[in-house]
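Q: Fold this one first, please.
A: Sequence and structure below.
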Amino acid sequence: MLFKIVIPARFGSSRLPGKPLLTINDKPMIWHVYQQALLTGIDANSIVIATDNDEIYRVAQDFGAQVIMTEISHESGTDRLAEVVTKLNWADSDIVVNVQGDEPMIPPALILQTAELLEKDLTAGISTLGSPITNLADALNQNVVKIVCNHNMQAMYFSRAAIPFDRDGELELTVDNLGKSNTPYLRHIGMYGYRVETLNKLTLLPMASIEKLEKLEQLRALYNGINISVGIVSEAPVHGVDTQADLDRVRVAFSALTSK
């Protein structure tokens, strides 16, 4: 399967400044993300780190990655991706998977699944992933984004609200001994694949009213009639690194893996 991977690696972070350079097992976080991308089996020339910082640029070059400097002023990851595909002159039909630079434990299989969705669904311009929500607390949590899909497994809507809404209040979430749940709720996993043509179109579209309300950038695509193909995974991957507590947790996990 042929596709591209872009790894955005911003230096600025209000909660954890410079996090792509913070070390895990004596290697910078961005190195670990790059290794996960390589494990997909695609050519290293199809993997690009996109940064806005000279030090991240130097470090990425030192460990052999293809890296490109992008504008510091981008308001979204989509805009940064669009700058990369424009500078590298990728074809409109190319598939690009966005792998966040703070996801050092992202499973390569999820990257491959995200790309494969666009290979299979030619009517979709974007792909993403979801996992079943098996407890009501997560369904009601506004920080857990939910997806409702149609019968073709394309997204109908993303929301911070508990959708679909249980009007009668009679639903009891259960999981059987095979791990199968009766849940109608899907948790959105923030992994995206794009066709280059769609990516370039998105950057020209104004922010949609529902996007402003929910603070969910993917709603701009749905508002403008762009199909989003959704793949299901059995459980959500380990959360990325946003805080010092997240970093500590990931460091412990890596130490446990290397000590085996």
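Q: Good. Now the second chain.
A: Here it is, same layout.
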Amino acid sequence: MDLKKKASKQPGSFFWVLDPVMGDQGRIYVNEDVVPAYKALVPHADLILPNQFEAELLSGIKITSAENLVDAVTVIHRTYNVPHVIVTSVQLPGPPSSSASSVISLSTADNSSVSQDARPDNMLAVFGSTMRSDRSARLFKVEVPRLDCFFSGTGDMFGALMVGRLREAVFNDSPALRETASWVSPDNVAMTDLPLAKATEKVLASMHTVLEKTMIARNEELARYQNEDENNDAEFAHLPEEERKAALEKRARLRASKAAEIRLVRNVEHVRHPVVKFKVREWNQ
């Protein structure tokens, strides 16, 4: 707060990204008094990164359709005067012809396969918006193929990459923008040309490649464990059946968690030089 106040005489010199971590999947996992504390902080942020549930908490709108999503982001812009919003982990109903739901998230259920099918229920997406001067939303959407694997820390990775890529996109834009408060583009800038949209493309390109390679390494590691277990299960043979079962389950959980640790360092070139394959599109629904 002090840093932002000191930078007020130099618009564009300070940019605050806030991830309002409060809960997910319809459940608050922080103390109840944290919610109003975050609501008090949001007006001071330049960009917030809520998931669907957190966007619902901030807006007071239950997101059950594309229209609700637009309304929720607009309310966040207008209520908190926060210039930039990216909403992750959104789950919307699929098309009428499909019995599956479209899951839009940065992490998905634990599985061992990669889905490359382009059906909506096999795609992940992120929605973003930079507000106009009247605080209305300029929404865009970018989709990537779903990786059916649970990864820990993707939210932190997304936020960290977004800081750098948004600054890069702003400094590649007009010199005037970098000296504009909160780096808000003029109203005539199209949704797909927003620095926030360009940054999101690069961030998701890096994340998709790194997570894809992480999942391949994870599957190989778990396969090695499976082969080794035929000889190593004897260490639990002396335990009663229930204790033995619990010990094996605990070992499996720990192995799965360790194997799914993001291989960031060994894939750093994909962070530095992402190949953008998934483009943003305007979202006017």
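Q: Anything worth noting on the second one?
A: The chain is about 40% helix and 10% strand.
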